Amino acid sequence: MRVAVLGAGDMGTAITAPIAANGHDVRLWGTTHDEHIIAALQAGQVHPRLQHPIDPAVNLLHADQIEQALAEADLVVVAVSSGAIDIVLDLVLATGMPVPPVLSLAKGLWHQPHEPVQVIGDRIQQMTGAPVIVVGGPAKANEVALHLPTVSVFASDDAGANQLASDLLQTPMYRAQTTTDRIGVELAAAMKNAYAIAVGVATGLEARLGLPHQNLKAALFPFAIEEMARLVHTLGGHPATVFGLAGVGDLSVTVAAGRNRLLGEMLGRGQPVADALAALVSTGMTIEGHAAAQHGYQMVRDIEGPGGIDEFPMLQALHRILFDGAPAFETLWDAISGQT
Amino acid sequence: MRVAVLGAGDMGTAITAPIAANGHDVRLWGTTHDEHIIAALQAGQVHPRLQHPIDPAVNLLHADQIEQALAEADLVVVAVSSGAIDIVLDLVLATGMPVPPVLSLAKGLWHQPHEPVQVIGDRIQQMTGAPVIVVGGPAKANEVALHLPTVSVFASDDAGANQLASDLLQTPMYRAQTTTDRIGVELAAAMKNAYAIAVGVATGLEARLGLPHQNLKAALFPFAIEEMARLVHTLGGHPATVFGLAGVGDLSVTVAAGRNRLLGEMLGRGQPVADALAALVSTGMTIEGHAAAQHGYQMVRDIEGPGGIDEFPMLQALHRILFDGAPAFETLWDAISGQT
Question: Could you tell me the domains of chain B?
Fold first, then answer.
């Protein structure tokens, strides 16, 4: 079979490992931002961020070679950030070639000024008309690249497309649990970055006070999970999705390390939010959770009654911390201790 | 109000901090095993394990002073290990004094040869006839002793007793979330120790192979949660309890450190189970999760059809690893990848 992977970032590159191991024809296409990555890989060097070499069977393609990437492809894997989805899909559509099922590795929400926030899978479906499979669950790219044990969640309304995708990608060490709850998986994948900021505050407090705060950390975690489950329910997904790999699993790997946790840590240490963000952004980091907190908040802000903003005290607290400069620990502690 | 805390271990001693801070008359009674602790505290020294001094308002009582502990008590807090419950309650009953509501901090299952395994709250209720409140959720004793932010779950069939207990114990930093699902809270509190062994295996594998296994760790966690929820459902509790503080919260603090995680780590490194257990037991550690895996397994082993042992592949895997010497990673990976 033939698989086009669009985007040569960490995850796009990593996912070629199980696909190539299965013996498929994999094309890794780099965007204009990925030119240096494709060049490095073509020169036999390691991927500049992943620091791993790529399977020699993978065909490496530059930004102007998208037609070669798509030629007779049975599956397109979209592995660009949420902000680049429209640009890349426009390039795909401009080829005039038929679009096979699309598997999305993007974890975030689609947003444009003056348009309602939506999940990326819906946007891909609108633009391409193709069946869409979205991937959630805990999957650090470097471990997928090394064939280390990973269980992802593949979600699609289209059972046939989901079967095709999981058959193509699954190996003994890269497993796919399938579900029809695409909305739930996408919301969990996006919102866990926001809630990881909240859990990170406990780590920052430990550093600031020189005292362990494991009880706080372990309390923030289930409150986050329960709130994400209510959010998913409110927006048309299944709470059970959040209690599995896509929620509990992905949040646990996200709070173990990473930039969203780091922002929370800086806030917990008492750094003002503007300073913390400026410091992180200056190192080239994108803090997806910062945007997710804003977009998640927007999605429930105007709902009256059940499912409305009052059912999301942690998200409200996060919004006040990130956008109104409220003190991190006190605001979060009010939000969770108000539920006792 | 008057509160008798029976057992001067870490948690019994720690819980006197919020109660004393609320201005109640607290008596901390030590068992015959706690004589050195009571003596140290009476001499103004720190608690030998907690390493914190005790609030000077706490009345310290020796093993032969149980009547003084119980005199006109409004609440009895039982803070001994699950194996010592019968002994301590026999001492209480032998005084002939009326037994007020009993709050249990014991996390484990009651078991005796040739008798069915049961939750400790049921045993306390049988023996005393008093209303019982059990406590779950993530609460490391040293943090409770220092008034660091903690949210526990108080569970009771008796709403009045639960209200009394939470009024007595809650402070601005020690919060109690109340529920009627006593069975769910008790099972989660006991079984999280068993499942923490499984999650620990990923950490051991990291050490053995010198490679990160964060994806595996973050996959084992939600599979454990989902299985604990099914177990609670099967045995008469509410799955939602497991998705909150008592399950997700307590498991997350348990896998972050501690002896149950450590046993899993040793198994993940490839140590035979007998050697790992012998090494831990020789340092005086009790591995509650080892017994919990056995007792949890016993509780579902004989159920046919829905709720039967086939719905608990991780518990089956743990049982094979701990009691049949099956290889840790391979057995667990089969159990979870078989669900994809």
Answer: 2-180 (3.40.50.720), 183-337 (1.10.1040.10)
